[in-house]
């Protein structure tokens, strides 16, 4: 990184790179352009809470670190893999790799499990920000945006820290931490701002940007409603941050649409500090971009208003099976791929994790018995077919009625004792490094490319696909909002995740794992022609990310982004208009 002629009071330090292209860089701690302590203190006075200057959470484990504290270290180690703990703090992430700087030559991390007594083993700040704004007011966001803009600072936004691309962390950054925006308000008659007189009100819940799905589900269930939301162990995924900005899928999506299809209004602070409302009638272009354009590119969300739906009983179906031969495994996947369209059309949605020779189903249909008259026979036909395949062993097959989504969710994702089949309460990793990828596999591949797709899927040892497309997801016009048009034609979202051992891995080992994820996803992409990828579960080497995440919507999104954020304040790696920026979004070559 070259930062030659530094110019006081300009918004960007401009230098010439060896090849002659102009380079502009954000201003990091230690750079001459970085604001003085006095300037930072003056800024801090306008915030509702003092600025937090965090060290990585494991700094307390390093005897040479000023914050060393053996008891605090024990607590950190005990909670290391606890997703709730990690989601509650500004300086921790679900995946430890995002707290570290990892490139082809260097690992700068703060690993409490290494040899902390070795003077060479220090706790690096990594991608943990130097300053955290504990946001409780809109003015905190406005002041921070203006301050970061004036001093050309690197700015990140963190809600829960679940993103697989880790863009809620950043080397040398100041952070807007939205976790404490905790309002939840219901309406039976919500009318968007600016709607024509006489517009019919809707049943909605409006949540602050820091509320998570567990909180929303509990609040909604009390009112006998359901909502389309993220499904993860403990419910720690945020309901008002990256999830709605990237699309948001749910086991309920085939019935009620994607998360973005259920948003009726949002409030947002724009890069220029203006606090605005976006809906179908007020700022419709912004509303278009916010629904899928990806966080935080189009502003800082402060609230989201979602539709709620009347709760109804559901029927869940669980399968645990294993195969005793490669032929059996391939035949099982063939039948599963073939059954995909009919099962979705018959009203089933769900998950189909598989690992080594095991294959699981966790499916859900509305109604008890299922409202769709074909649900039972379609699934039964699939079970009967696979039970005839030599080498396929069915270990468990249960169909169970639940009073509603909430009971199903609590028993399978919150209570570790009541789940059936795949154990989701331990299935979601936290406190480990991660390399992930997603492939949104179109319906056409399930229908017309069955054998090749089945073969590509069996090449993976371990995957976590979501059967969450078709139905209501396929209905909206792909132009209606920015969300990836690939969602409208997909049936399953295949996610792949690999990890490594932070204590022992070298930069080359990590690169190998990351490339492995790309190689594995490429194997599926090679047969799933026209597949897109879900930005919220994406990989760092996603090829042609603009097309993968936004398809034909990209040019419109980029034009809008350039107008909205001319100073590139809210740029993230692989985000809209990130072309030319390095992977850490510190320097741009133009
Ligand atoms: C265990 C687990 C389960 C998951 N389950 C699902 C699922 O069922 N369905 C699904 O669709 N996805 C799921 N995901 C993926 C999830 O959608 C993404 O991880 C998402 O980015 C999380 O958003 P967040 O706000 O919680 O996390 P963060 O990492 O805090 O934020 C994610 C992104 O949004 C930005 N951002 C955060 N808050 C704001 C804000 N207020 N304004 C503007 N930008 C903001 C951040 O800068 C970052 O780029 C899951 C992920 C995990 C790890
Ligand atoms: C890797 O990161 C270190 C620490 O930030 C940096 O000094 C080095 O230049 C980086 N190397 C590469 C190849 O990017
Ligand atoms: C952030 O603000 C909240 C809400 O006022 C407060 O309860 C909390 O203690 C603050 N957190 C930190 C780490 O300062
Ligand atoms: C279909 O219904 C029958 C009769 O109620 C039941 O025994 C069977 O388990 C159901 N099949 C599935 C796959 O749910
Ligand atoms: C899920 O795994 C946890 C941790 O191993 C275990 O305590 C729990 O009993 C398991 N749940 C079920 C239903 O088997
Ligand atoms: C699959 O192929 C058939 C026959 O060519 C065609 O009618 C159908 O539309 C294809 N399905 C999809 C989803 O493209
Ligand atoms: C990483 O490797 C070390 C050394 O082999 C081992 O002690 C440790 O348990 C491993 N950690 C994990 C999380 O697997
Ligand atoms: C790459 O992935 C394959 C298949 O999952 C696995 O067997 C192998 O160990 C992985 N290698 C690395 C370096 O991650």
TrEMBL record:
Q: Which residues form the FAD-binding PCMH-type domain?
A: 125-311
List the signal peptide residues: 1-21
Q: Which domain of life is it from?
A: Eukaryota
Task: Tell me which UniProt keywords the record has, alphabetically.
Answer: FAD, Flavoprotein, Oxidoreductase, Signal
Citing just one GO molecular function, the answer is:
oxidoreductase activity
**Co-factor requirement:** FAD
Give the family this protein belongs to, as stated in its UniProt record: Belongs to the oxygen-dependent FAD-linked oxidoreductase family.
Q: Which PANTHER family match?
A: BINDING OXIDOREDUCTASE, PUTATIVE (AFU_ORTHOLOGUE AFUA_1G17690)-RELATED (PTHR42973), FAD-BINDING PCMH-TYPE DOMAIN-CONTAINING PROTEIN (PTHR42973:SF39)
Which protein is depicted? FAD-binding PCMH-type domain-containing protein
Q: What is the lineage of its organism?
A: Eukaryota, Fungi, Dikarya, Basidiomycota, Agaricomycotina
């Amino acid at each position: 990184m070259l930062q030659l002629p530094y110019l006081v009071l300009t918004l960007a330090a401009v230098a010439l790179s060896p090849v002659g292209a102009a380079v502009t860089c954000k201003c990091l701690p230690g750079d001459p352009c970085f604001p003085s302590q006095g300037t930072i203190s003056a800024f801090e006075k306008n915030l509702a809470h003092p600025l937090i200057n965090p060290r990585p959470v494991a700094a307390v484990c390093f005897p040479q670190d000023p914050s060393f504290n053996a008891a605090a270290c024990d607590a950190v180690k005990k909670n290391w893999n606890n997703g709730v703990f990690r989601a509650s703090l500004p300086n921790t992430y679900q995946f430890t790799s995002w707290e570290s700087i990892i490139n082809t030559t260097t690992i700068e991390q703060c690993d409490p499990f290494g040899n902390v007594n070795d003077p060479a083993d220090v706790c690096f700040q990594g991608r943990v920000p130097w300053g955290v704004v504990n946001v409780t007011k809109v003015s905190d966001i406005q002041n921070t945006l203006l301050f970061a803009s004036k001093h050309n600072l690197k700015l990140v936004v963190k809600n829960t820290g679940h993103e697989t691309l880790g863009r809620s962390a950043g080397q040398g950054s100041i952070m807007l931490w939205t976790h404490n925006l905790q309002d939840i308000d219901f309406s039976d008659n919500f009318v968007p701002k600016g709607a024509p007189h006489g517009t019919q009100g809707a049943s909605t819940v409006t949540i602050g940007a820091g509320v998570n799905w567990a909180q929303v589900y509990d609040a909604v269930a009390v009112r006998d409603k359901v909502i389309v939301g993220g499904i993860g162990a403990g419910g720690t995924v945020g309901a008002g941050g990256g999830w709605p900005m990237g699309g948001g899928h749910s086991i309920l999506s085939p019935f009620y649409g994607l998360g973005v299809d259920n948003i009726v209004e949002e409030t947002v602070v724009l890069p220029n500090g203006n606090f605005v409302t976006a809906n179908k009638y007020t700022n419709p272009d912004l509303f278009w971009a916010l629904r899928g354009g990806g966080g935080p590119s189009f502003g800082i969300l402060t609230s989201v208003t979602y539709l709620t739906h009347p709760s109804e009983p559901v029927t869940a179906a669980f399968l645990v099976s294993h195969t005793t031969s490669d032929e059996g495994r391939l035949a099982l996947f063939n039948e599963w791929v073939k059954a995909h369209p009919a099962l979705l059309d018959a009203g089933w949605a769900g998950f189909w994790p598989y690992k080594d020779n095991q294959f699981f189903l966790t499916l859900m249909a509305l109604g008890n018995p299922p409202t769709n008259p074909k649900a039972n026979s379609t699934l039964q036909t699939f079970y009967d077919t696979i039970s005839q395949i030599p080498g396929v062993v069915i270990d468990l097959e249960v169909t169970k009625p639940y009073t509603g989504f909430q009971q199903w969710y609590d028993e399978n994702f919150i209570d570790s004792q009541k789940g059936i089949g795949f154990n989701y309460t331990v299935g979601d990793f936290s406190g480990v490094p991660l390399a992930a990828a997603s492939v949104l596999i179109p319906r056409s591949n399930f229908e017309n490319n069955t054998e090749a797709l089945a073969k590509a899927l069996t090449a993976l040892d371990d995957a976590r696909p979501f059967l969450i497309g078709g139905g209501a997801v396929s209905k909206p016009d792909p132009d209606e909002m920015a969300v990836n048009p690939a969602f409208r034609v997909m049936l399953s979202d295949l996610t792949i995740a690999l990890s490594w051992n932070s204590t022992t891995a070298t930069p080359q080992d990590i690169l190998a794992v990351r490339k492995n994820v790309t190689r594995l996803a490429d194997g599926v992409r090679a047969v799933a022609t026209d597949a897109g990828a879900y930005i919220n579960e994406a990989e760092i080497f996603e090829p042609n990310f603009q097309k993968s995440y936004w398809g034909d919507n990209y040019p419109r999104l980029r034009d809008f982004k350039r107008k909205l954020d001319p100073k590139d304040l809210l740029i993230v790696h692989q985000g809209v208009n990130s072309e030319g920026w390095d992977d850490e979004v510190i320097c741009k070559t133009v």
